[in-house]
Amino acid sequence: MSIAPPPIEVRRAPEGGDVGPIQSGWRLALREFTRNKLAVIGVGVLVFFIVFCFVGPVFYHGNITSSDLSSVLEGPQAGHPLGTDNNGFDVLGQLMKGGQASLEIGFLAALIAIVVGALVGAVAGLVGGIVDSILMRLVDVFLSIPLLFVVLIVAVRYGATVLSLSLIIGSYTWLVPARLVRGEVLTLRVRDFVAAARTAGSSQWRLIRKHLIPNALGVIIVNVTFNVADAILLVAALGFLGFGLHFPTVDWGDMLSNGVTYLQNGSWWLIYPAGICIVVVVMACNLIGDALRDSLDVRLRRR
Amino acid sequence: MVTYLLRRLGASVVVVIGISIFTFGLLHLIFPSPAIVVLGSRANSVLIAAFNKEHGFDNPWLVQYGDYVKGVLHGNLGFAYKYNQPVSSLFAQRWLRSAYLSGISLVLAILIGIPLGIYQAVKRNSIGDNVATAAAFVAYAMPVFFLGLILIQLFAFTFPIFGFEASQSDSIWTVIGDWHDMTLPIALLTVITVANYSRFMRSSAIDTLAQDYIKAARAKGLPERLVLLRHLARNACLPMVTLIGLSIPLLLAGNLITEYIFNFQGLGLLFVNSLTQEDYNVLLAYTLIGAILTVAGNFVADIALTVADPRIRLA
Questions:
Q1: Are B299 and B9 in contact (CB under 8 A)?
Q2: 3-state class of A121 per DSSP?
Q3: What is the pLDDT of residues B71-89, one digit of tens each?
Q4: Cβ atoms within 10 A of the Cβ of A290, count?
Q5: Virtual CA dihedral for A226, A228, A230, A233, nearest 10 degrees?
Q6: What is the CA radius of gyration of chain A?
Q7: Shortest Cα distance, chain A CAs vs residue B224, angstroms
Q8: Per-residue pLDDT, A15
């Protein structure tokens, strides 16, 4: 009777993951971000809506441009999954089209706001002195004027298109990013790497471009998401008050204001789909923003 | 304290002057002259020129700005051409209604938001906290008008408890007494504001709970009720003072949309109506008033904070 020899234990080198390559802060932040379930859901929701609004119309052709008086205010049914409005337009088709406008304005306005805000903030923080005082007083002035009022006045006069609304909203929402970036730059500019770059002969513009903005990127990215959410809400408010986009373009707020008239008839499909779309997209943006802030914060703590 | 007050007041005045220049310049650029509105679209250029000369609309804009400021300082906010009466008398008829709606909503929001935030912080991660956090998160993402429509659908149509339109009475006392028609507008504006405050109050209270003086108060055997009331609430409310001061533009925007939804004849609805009628003096006056209220809110909040928090040392 022989006893089987015990299996030879091979000592393996630890898996690559245990030691791991040196990970950049961004990768750590990404890992932290993907661990946050709500944030992943937020990204999923946003991707879903982008696909729904921009790819959806390729597959689903709802009539949203020619009035069809034979099918007015019909509830959800075959052919019209979300019913029709008072012009006989297909609500699902309008939802896609309206989402395009809302998302485009949201992202474009946020992009404008963040570019302007980052530049103004960086210049004010780096140059300091009288330039800083003037720019920040300017921000104080603009921040004190209720945003909705000014946006309404300008939108009424110059007409509302996707581009004009993005410009109006973007040119007014750079204030908060400017303040945040300035605060960040004030702490960055006294660090050694900035002094080193300056000693090496970097110009102010190069300092801003190559050193300050990349290091303030965390603050900037977090703010983009909140700016997108705010812009979408603002556009919806404009649309609801009747100063939004004009036919044949449409946005979600527009659809809601149209549906208000028929609230009493029980035409729920004119209100709730558009309203829920706004809420869900804005919530997704806020979730992503919160999670980004957390993950970038963790990155700072771990250093 | 007095020097701080004066310096702070000086800064506020500079901001107000900046605001008036910007707002006047913007509206001047957009609506150079009300001639077409007053004379009708068929007025010829001679008539328009005569009108502009008579009312000073052909002056350089700096002169017009000077005239406007002079008027405002004498209580003259310009003339509302579409309503055919001075803006100040239009505002006089309506401001009480807006002030009532915004004021009571603000007070209710503070009364609800602060205890709610403290409750959430103390019972952190309990069911109640999670429900409140989720509700605040949804309300925070919800457009004011959508929530308003849901409230109308639910409480005016499905369960006809309240009216779907705000009180139309001219007397402010009737408006105040009319709970049937005023509950929904007030509830709407309150909910939107509470969503803002409770989120902030919760995180502020959580920060405060981690402080050593809370531990000390508990360690010496102070009843929990007093710990929360005397040590937690008073300290956690300090940042709220600033937030409330900063939330005036939000309140004004919410007020505008609430008045629009419920057809409440206040300043916000007047503003919306004047937008379509291009009654730019009304727009200018309300934007200016809103901006000045915002500056005043920040100012009062700053002062209140220095009074309330003895740790703040003024340089």
A1: yes
A2: helix
A3: 888 878 777 777 878 888 8
A4: 18
A5: -140
A6: 26
A7: 31
A8: 53
Residue that the structure tokens 């970038």 belong to: A296
List the structure tokens of B115. 């205890």
Mean pLDDT, rounded, for A157-179:
84
Q: Phi and psi for A84 in degrees, rounded to 5?
A: -130, 160
* DSSP character string of B164-216: SS----SSHHHHHH-HHHHHHHHHHHHHHHHHHHHHHHHHHHHHHHTSHHHHH
Closest chain A residue by Cα to residue B20: A141
Report CA-CA distances (Å) from B99 to A152, B30, B126, B271: 22, 29, 37, 15
Contacts of B294 in chain A (CB under 8 A): 143-146
Among A156, A159, A172, A260, CA closest to B272: A156
The residue behind tokens 């006809």 is B160
Q: Do A150 and B249 touch (CB under 8 A)?
A: no
Distance (Å, whole) CA A170 – CA A106: 9
State CA A99 to chain mean position distance: 14
Tokens of A68: 């069809």
* Model ipTM value: 0.82
Nearest to A226 by CA among A95, A149, A113: A113
CB environment A216-254: b (16+ within 10 A), e (fewer) = bebbbbbbbbbbbbbbbbbbbbbbbbebbbeeeebbbbb
Contact residues for B242 (Cβ-Cβ < 8 A; gap 6+): B301, B302, B305
Interface of A with B in 129-148 (CB under 8 A): 137-138, 140-148
pLDDT tens digit sequence for A240-286 = 888 877 777 788 888 888 777 777 777 777 788 888 888 999 989 88
Helix-then-strand count for chain A, H and E: 15, 0
CB distance B216 to B231 below 8 Å: no
A245: Cβ contacts below 8 Å, ≥ 6 apart? A101, A160, A161, A162, A165, A239, A251, A254
Distance CA B22, CA B284 (A): 10
Q: How far apart (Å, rounded) are the C-alpha atoms in residues B182 and B176?
A: 8
Own/partner contacts of B72-81, CB < 8 Å, gap of 24 or more, are B72/B20, B72/B288, B77/B281, B77/B285, B78/B281, B78/B284, B78/B285, B79/B281, B80/B274, B80/B279, B80/B281, B80/B282, B81/B34, B81/B37, B81/B38, B81/B279, B81/B281
Out of B15, B260, B271, whose CB is closest to A141? B15
Mutate one of B246, B257, B275 to test the A interface: name it (highest A CB count within 10 A): B275
From A157's Cα to the closest Cα of chain B, the distance in A is 7
Give chain A positions within 8 Å (CB) of B251: none
Q: What is the pLDDT of residues A80-103, one digit of tens each?
A: 666 777 676 777 878 888 888 888
Closest residue in chain A to residue B276, using alpha carbons only: A156
Who's near A161: CB < 8 A, 6+ residues apart? Answer: A245, A249
Partner A contacted by B291 (CB < 8 A): yes
CA B77 to CA B64: how far, in whole Å?
13
Q: What is the pLDDT of residues B125-138, one digit of tens each?
A: 888 888 988 888 88
